[in-house]
Amino acid sequence: MIALISVSDKAGVKEFALALAELEFDIYSTGGTQQHLAETGLPVQSISALTGFPEILDGRVKTLHPLVHGGILARRDLPAHMDELAESHIPPIDLVCVNLYPFVETVSRGQVSLEDALENIDIGGPALIRAAAKNFPHVLVVVDPADYEEIIDLLRAGDVPLGERRRLAEKAFQHVAAYDTAVAQYLRGDDLFPDRLTIALAKLSDLRYGENPYQRAALYREERVGQPEMGIVDARQLHGKAMSLNNILDADAAWAAVNDFAEPAVVIVKHTNPCGLACHQNIAEAYRRALASDPVSAFGGIVACNRELIGEVAQEMSQTFYEIVIAPAYREEALATLEKKRDLRVLQMPEALADGGRALDYRRVSGGILIQEADSYPDDDIELRVVTKRAPTSEELVDLRFAWKAVKHVKSNAIVIAKDKAMLGMGAGQPNRVTSVYLALRAAEERARDAVLASDAFFPFADNVELAAEKGISAIIQPGGSIRDGEVIAAADAHGIAMVFTGVRHFKH
User: Fold this and answer.
1) Prior bond of 464 cis (ω within 30°)
2) Cβ distance 301 to 322 under 8 Å?
3) Ranges assigned E (strand) in 93-137
4) Is 222 inside any structural domain?
5) Domain check: are 340 and 387 in the same one?
6) pLDDT of residue 136
7) Which of 108, 220, 256, 478 could be cross-linked to 455 through a Cys-Cys bond (beta carbons 3.0 to 4.6 Å apart)?
8) Nearest partner of 103 among 181, 36, 174, judged by Cα
């Protein structure tokens, strides 16, 4: 029996080769892998010894040879194939262990020239893998070191069953597909929406279930060329029970919202909508104000802060039932306090990368996928246009900008009421905007007087402004652009409300 081994990831390959040799496999290899295996004392032979042809073109051509691919692709159950092998003196190859050049790692290292990138595109490796995987009933194909031990155990017991061979073949084709996807991503450059698009995903874990107990679910990481965007999949769980699908969705929403603010901020999320959000130089005060936004909805929510979590804040958090706490770092006393709650999930986020690439937002629809750029509009750079007789005060202007950032993270139709850089109420996901205004005002209650209001899209009618005026709203920020803007502005003027237009909207469906 013959095994061909040529791997980039050399983890465990020495032990694998030694075990194969014990099972009376003759081992052939290439280049660095051959040298690596020779350190074991095994009589590892080069591919050139098999083909009788030297490696050429600086190693670009070494396994692309009939004596290699014939030995892999021949069907053992077809006498004609076996006769051809015998006539051409081609030995059958029974096992192919290959994984590919580190293309992703290479092109992710800072400034890499096109020449270096192209040299790290593996050609022979994918050809070997695909050939072996195509003939999986007769040839074992191995691309993952995690499979070495199981394969050896099965071979020692007699043989690898057809079902396992098929699983290994599927894994092999997926390995090559992910590799090809990475190469295509690199060559594509800034073209976000090509005519053909594949997405590479690596499974991180199975989940207990999906949104509901009868739905199966798993978490995958998107594999992208270049530095990956640091997101919720990179969180390190320090404490608590396993994350569910709903937990992950809510945690992602919380982390996205709190990271939109440069100053210290705390957000509390429920069903992916922020029900509490506040900024303050004192992170403990930011938490108190966020909780005060809607303490009823906060129960069972997810709380995230964009600064190190200190003991004082952790102590206050422990007075409310939360599913998850998220922060970039934890003081020792804070972590000790949170760990007293057995089931509370405590997540530590990694440092954000300076350049995470251009994130894409994928939405599944029946029969296809919608893809768009993530909503990362530079809101701090928006030049607000005052459209009413009264301009907002400097204090109102600060709150208007805060509310505009907050409303971006609320489901459309979205309304946020805020004061002193704290959310007081919000209305989310309603089929008409006036209902969202009503819900936000109801949550804010008497606190709405002299507060500001943000709307993620334009007001189609003046009734929204009339309702806001009844509760004492002093300033409004909205995109503008309705055919009834004149009526809306006139209603604001009639009540002495300052109104500014952003010229952009923040729909979040």
Assistant:
1) no
2) yes
3) 95-98
4) no
5) no
6) 96
7) 478
8) 181
